[in-house]
Design brief:
Strand order of the largest sheet: 1-3-4-5-2-6
Number of strands: 6
Distance between the termini: 57 Å
Order of helices and strands: HHHEHEHEHHEHHEHEHHHHHHH
Low-confidence stretches: 50-56
CATH architecture of the largest domain: 3-Layer(aba) Sandwich
CATH superfamily of the largest domain: P-loop containing nucleotide triphosphate hydrolases
Mean pLDDT: 84
Shape: globular
CATH class of the largest domain: Alpha Beta
Length: 349
């Protein structure tokens, strides 16, 4: 943390500049996490989300097409290159410069929706999502009308400066209108969506997510102020995220123990690691379903899920430079037996 950041915090506080204060606090939390102090970073984020600063909330209005989405207080590990873009979004919104519509594109499980939740938490805004089930209607001509009514609802929100609207998997409305496989009805719906985005209240933050960016309507892409690519994970990013998740899980499941060196070796052995969504599920289920009588059983389960049970052999593990103790943990074969097998291989050579 730099002196300038402390001065900024004091200045923003004295000016009652809540957006500036939270933005600077977020930058400080990010620097702590980047320097390896994830717990302190998470604590700062929790303080921000639980702050008692008065912010007018939306009244209990009844909306047909948008629904409230709960925001959790969990921190979200992201690669630095994506994290910098998210900081840029927070800064842009904080400056009230009319930059308020963003498109997140990337494969499933890359953290698009969770990032929207985190942005809402940082900005202290309520998060609503568009309910496509109520929006899309099989009756001819009804879906474009529903889209128009959706934006009427959005523009009627009492405190738009305190709201984020999520178009999750906006692909359903945003496929290329020139695509012959796309029915005309959805093409008209996309046109209604374009008109709605052109006239929406700029105080609302609009974020769309898509897994099918290549098929996206180009005119719709131009309606967003910025597009963020979430497919920018390096192997080391995924390893860091896995270590972060396991560290949290070990604190919850007291019968487990940390072995970061072995976990890292398992992750490095994989030809390709899954994106954070699937990786998170693999790690959580491996720990949750591990034997309470074996502190490292979860590591074996992780190995099987990511690499494959057929590779859980002394020969393979030895070739990948696993130690005798690590082979024992993963296979359940005693160290003495592992040593004999390894010596036997040498003698055969």
């Amino acid at each position: 943390m730099k002196k300038k950041q402390i001065i900024n915090l004091i200045r923003y506080h004295s000016e009652n500049n809540e957006v500036g204060f939270k933005k600077e606090a977020f930058n400080i939390a990010n620097s702590f996490e980047r320097n390896g102090d994830a717990q302190l970073a998470e604590y700062i984020m929790a303080l921000l989300s639980d702050s008692n600063v008065f912010t007018p909330q939306m009244q209990n209005e009844s909306f047909e097409y948008i629904k409230k989405l709960d925001i959790n207080n969990k921190s979200l590990p992201l690669p630095d290159v994506i994290k910098e873009d998210i900081i840029g979004i927070v800064n842009a919104i904080g400056h009230n410069a009319g930059v308020s519509k963003f498109l997140f594109e990337g494969d499933p499980g890359t953290g698009k929706t969770e990032t929207v939740k985190q942005i809402s938490r940082i900005l202290d805004r309520e998060l609503f999502y568009v309910d496509f089930d109520s929006l899309i209607d099989s009756k001819l001509g009804q879906t474009p009308k529903n889209v128009s009514n959706l934006f009427n609802e959005m523009n009627s929100i009492v405190y738009p400066q305190n709201v984020v609207i999520l178009f999750d998997e906006i692909d359903g409305l945003a496929m290329n209108r020139m695509n012959n496989s796309d029915i005309r009805e959805m093409g008209r719906a996309t046109t209604s969506l374009l008109k709605g985005l052109d006239s929406v209240n700029e105080n609302l933050v609009i974020i769309g997510t898509t897994n099918l960016f290549k098929e996206f309507d180009k005119a719709l892409i131009r309606r967003f102020d910025a597009t963020i690519n979430f497919n920018r994970y390096e192997t080391q990013d995924l390893i860091d995220i896995a270590l972060f998740i396991i560290d949290e899980l070990v604190n919850v499941f007291k019968f487990t123990s940390r072995n970061k060196r072995l976990l890292k070796k398992i992750l490095e052995t994989a030809d390709k690691l899954p994106y954070p969504g699937d990786l998170n599920n693999i790690l959580r289920t491996s720990v949750a379903f591990s034997s309470p009588n074996n502190e490292f059983d979860y590591l074996k389960k992780i190995f099987i899920r990511i690499i494959g049970e057929e590779y859980l052999t002394v020969e393979f593990l030895k070739a990948k430079k696993y130690t005798v103790r690590e082979i024992e943990i993963l296979t359940g074969i005693s160290k003495s037996q592992v040593s004999r097998e390894m010596k036997g291989e040498k003698n055969d050579e």
